[in-house]
Amino acid sequence: MFHFSRPRAFSAARRSFALGASALVASTLVAPALAGSVDKFVDGIWKRARARGVSRRVFDIAMGDFAPLPKVLELSRKQPEFASTAADYVGKRVTDKQAGTGQAMRGEWAQTLAAVNEKYGVQPEAVLGIWGIETNFGSFMGGTNTVHALATLTHGGYRADYFGNELVTALEILEGGHVRAKNMVGSWAGAMGHPQFMPSSFMKYAVDFRGDGHKDIWGSVPDALASTANYLRSFGWRPGETWGYEVRLPRDFNYDNVWSGITATLADWRGVGVVRANGRAFPRDTDAARLYMPMGGNGPVFAVLANFEVIKRYNNSDSYALAVGHLADRVLGGKTFIAAWPKDTALTASDRMQLQARLLQRGYQIGTPDGVIGPKTRAAVMDYQARAGLLPDGHVSGNLLQALG
What we know:
Largest sheet: 5 strands, antiparallel
Distance between the termini: 43 Å
Radius of gyration: 24 Å
Number of helices: 18
CATH topology of the domain at 21-82 and 142-192: Helicase, Ruva Protein, domain 3
Helix content: 40-55%
CATH class of the domain at 21-82 and 142-192: Mainly Alpha
CATH architecture of the domain at 21-82 and 142-192: Orthogonal Bundle
Number of strands: 7
Strand order of the largest sheet: 4-6-7-3-5
């Protein structure tokens, strides 16, 4: 039997409650590897590539003139902390123009998308959502030589084990004849082609949908669309189902049910007053969902389903999955979100530490400020919000930091 938390009862006692297939690089820069000269480094890569079946001819074409790419090194070192709200993230990526382009692509590639859906069970709008967010429907796939980018990162000691393996795998792809070395381009971190696959993802999920013997995710839209669908299916995509619904919460809703990550059927959520924002019924009451509240209870709130979590296997970000899902809906003719985004700012780690320090000053025993919003901080935030006459949703943001003075 599923049990929701009851509405929060705020009191003085509450004061005792003593953070894709895409290449998202999240580690810090390590000290440069002691690889010696470029020639010595290239020779070491050749030995690894030869052991994995790469011919000298293919290797020399791809690596023969290698020199570290300064721009890649600069980008690997320059990754400052950046905080973006869901409104900013989605708003920049899902626009009327983008939706229109997606609808045009849906018509242009209708036959291919139908065949992909029949084989992999992934709806056209979902594949188009990924395509649009990743490369703007193929209009920008990155222009960096993939082999040289990966070699630069490996030689520079930036996650050398990971990128070194991706480098050798990229050489294996060239050996397989799927793409010419000069056409193997992508992001500075090695994500390639229309779907922005890393080489290891290419090996697992890329498909030859045209049947010409090549898995060409750079030049063949059918291969790219089918590869994207194969990726999603491999992680459990549920055919014919959507990613989620915008919902409306009741006034007395207990926001602990959001932050605890509870998953329940849509029928159970409806039982505590959660309804679709557009007033329609949920198509299937038995679907399981969790609530996702990116900017607090005063902004859009979503009941996200299993396919939302599958999209996150492409890029482990709720904002990313929301952008993909929303673009998919817009391709189908859907409108923008019903609830307006609040005017607010996201918090950096240092901002969150400052927020915690201000809670401590107000008597909340939450421990040493560390920038991590755990259960104690969340409970303190909700108690403060209730006492201050704010919506007690537990959402931390620039507005809350300002309210705390």
